[in-house]
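Below is a filled-in request sheet from our internal design queue. Each sheet records the structural input a requester submitted and the sequence that came back. We keep these sheets so that new team members can see what a complete request looks like end to end.

REQUESTER: design group, bay 2
PRIORITY: normal
MODE: inverse folding
CHAIN LENGTH: 259
BACKBONE (tokenized):
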């Protein structure tokens, strides 16, 4: 009986092991690519909802509200997001353009990146057509980030106003002094961090934190702070912070329903 040389059997075994390793590596790369695509889709595309679901609220933000800075199944789900989800179906959007805004009527923009000029035109047209916007425009963000300076995923240090507020008759000034401050939002006392000051022709609160602007058929509420959402890191009483945000959204939503 002729036996195959032992070396050839060993070669076949090594080849089988290498093939299996290659298949496993390919599967791993495919999984990583699929996960990246899933994350990008969740961040950029609206999520389909059933007709009986809660009212939809679009969310545009650079803050780690939906996902944490290190993506994972346990990441994200911030207290602010959990508060929003008690009342709304939150729909993340990547840019405030006509394609993203669509026919929805309620939008929360929390410390965004500078929007392209075309998107600003679309946003202004959307508000004037009846849209309701809560804009958190922070001129001195204190939100801690582990991402290095210059990282495109790091929230910008200040709200990048490229003319939108001026177009609506507002001016946003940075604080003269940094630090926590007691303010009022939605009729409740909240804790802010280095809030700005608003001036202009809109209806502005006594502490100049909030401006309510009637714009065409729609309305925009501008708040000169975004750090008040960071209830886990603020040093002081924050029990009312998220309820105050919900109160401002409820006021806008009520006007949507009653128009």
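RETURNED SEQUENCE:
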């Amino acid at each position: 009986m002729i036996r195959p040389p032992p070396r050839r059997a060993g070669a076949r075994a090594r080849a089988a092991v290498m093939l299996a390793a290659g298949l496993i590596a390919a599967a791993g790369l495919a999984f990583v690519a699929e996960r990246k695509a899933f994350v990008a889709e969740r961040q950029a595309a609206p999520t389909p909802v059933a007709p009986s679901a809660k009212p939809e609220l679009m969310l545009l933000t650079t803050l780690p509200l939906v996902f944490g800075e290190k993506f994972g199944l346990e990441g994200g789900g911030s207290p602010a997001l959990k508060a929003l989800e008690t009342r709304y179906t939150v729909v993340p959007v990547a840019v405030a353009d006509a394609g993203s805004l669509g026919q929805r009527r309620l939008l929360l923009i929390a410390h965004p990146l500078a929007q392209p000029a075309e998107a600003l035109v679309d946003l202004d047209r959307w508000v004037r057509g009846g849209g309701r916007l809560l804009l958190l425009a922070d001129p001195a963000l204190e939100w801690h980030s582990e991402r290095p300076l210059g990282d495109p995923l790091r929230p910008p240090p200040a709200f990048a106003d490229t003319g939108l507020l001026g177009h609506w008759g507002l001016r946003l000034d940075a604080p003269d002094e940094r630090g926590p401050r007691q303010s009022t939002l939605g009729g409740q006392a909240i804790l802010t961090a280095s809030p700005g000051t608003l001036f202009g022709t809109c209806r502005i609160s006594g502490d100049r934190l909030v401006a309510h602007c009637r714009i065409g058929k729609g309305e925009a509420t501008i708040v000169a702070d975004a750090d008040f959402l960071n209830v886990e890191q603020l040093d002081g009483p924050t029990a009312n912070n998220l309820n105050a945000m919900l109160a401002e959204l409820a006021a806008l939503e009520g006007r949507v329903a009653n128009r």
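SHEET NOTES:
- Confidence is low (pLDDT under 50) at residues 1-52.
- The first strand starts at residue 56 and ends at 61.
FILED BY: M.R.
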